[in-house]
Amino acid sequence: MNNETPAHVPTPSPTMPSPPTPSPGKKGFDFHIDGQPDFALLTVNLPANETLKVEASAMASMDTNMVMKTKMRGGLGRLVTRESIFINEFTAGGGPAEMKIAPGAPGDLSHVHLDGNTIFLQNSAFVASGMDVAVETKWQGIKKGFFSGESLFLIRCSGHGDLWFNTYGALIEMDVTDDYVVDTGYIVAFTEGLSYDVTRVGGYKSLFLSGEGLVCRFRGEGKVWIQTRQVPALRSWVWPFRRAKKKG
Amino acid sequence: MEIAIQHGPGNAAAKVQLGPGESCTAEGGAMIAMSGDMAIETTTHKKGSGGIGKALKRMLSGESFFLNHFTAGANGGELWLATTLAGDMMQTELNQENLVVQGGSFVACDPRVNIDMGFQGFKSLVAKEGIFWLHLNGSGKVIVNSYGAIYPVEVDGEYIVDTGHIVAFNDTLGFKLSKAGKSWMSSFLGGEGFVCRFAGKGTVWCQSHNSTSFGRALGPMLRPR
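^ inputs. structure came back:
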């Protein structure tokens, strides 16, 4: 085999566990994220017999001693939102094991370590978490949910341990100290304690004509993560390129 | 008005920092996040004046019918702008100059910059892609976006750009729409169709990818309309 690599072939990222993103305070699992911000890929090193919850179909590759179990999650809410109602649990059997995880949409990944605090995720943002993180689907209520144009449900993550979530497009982390407005489709996650309201962006003229529709107004102290692209907008953009249906 | 383009070239977003009472004019739908006390006004044209004719022309250019004017509160504020497709953004500053921007590539500008639509006449109607171009003139900062990466070409003499790959150009450049190959047959079979032949001295900003080609590649895989 020819060992010469052609110049245009990108060198693959080293698979050695050299974490560029260290886990804070050594609390959670050993992990690192490669390929940021456009094609983030998460690598988690699980110690023997430890288990990780992973969004259905997000596993890219893993060691052979990793054992997978499929669990139902979230119940009815997930059915309604057409998200997968399954979540996979991967356990490192007999010894430590490594797995690589990437969600469907190309974009960035972020990590938080929960210590009894709670984070809300937009419906499709969940990637993976430790076993002591409770992942529940939460009905937002008609006003906050339906009018947000996104989903009637949020994912509530609480407890202790690692939590990873993803974006479509780049990720921007914002510290909210007073109030901040985010277009509903671009919200990825936010910390509990922030109050939020779905409102119109300006006067009634702006509501219908601005192209911004409804926005989410966060108040209080906390963090909001937003993404720079959104999947529904891409869908609307590509829609006119469909073939015309044959008549008759 | 301070502009920082972040996360380019794949997923660019523009962070616009506004001083107290300062304004920014953006394409409808471009705002993704902003300070809570930012005021927004939606008009069909330049802040304070709303010509419906101009708005209609702008709609034809593939831009949103409406423009949003954001004005920061007493402590200033920030505004984040992004686009639908993957790609980059670029900022440039006009100093009593004219810039021609491809319909669909305009993101935002200083409210002192005039936005007008130039109708390129029948020859560009035939071209289908990039029929309409926005003419920006005046002084102030401008943000444009591209599908894919963005690259400037300093033209001194003549240069050819496919119509689907033009982002913006100085209007010191003259241009002519023409065929890419020797004959129309080869131009269309070769998938190049119309090209823009620039002449003179100035800069053309091009995008690495053509969004219409991407749309045509995806469209047939979707349920017919």
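The first strand of chain A starts at residue 30 and ends at 34. Helices of chain A lie at 76-80, 142-145, 204-209, 231-238.
thumbs up if we can close this ticket
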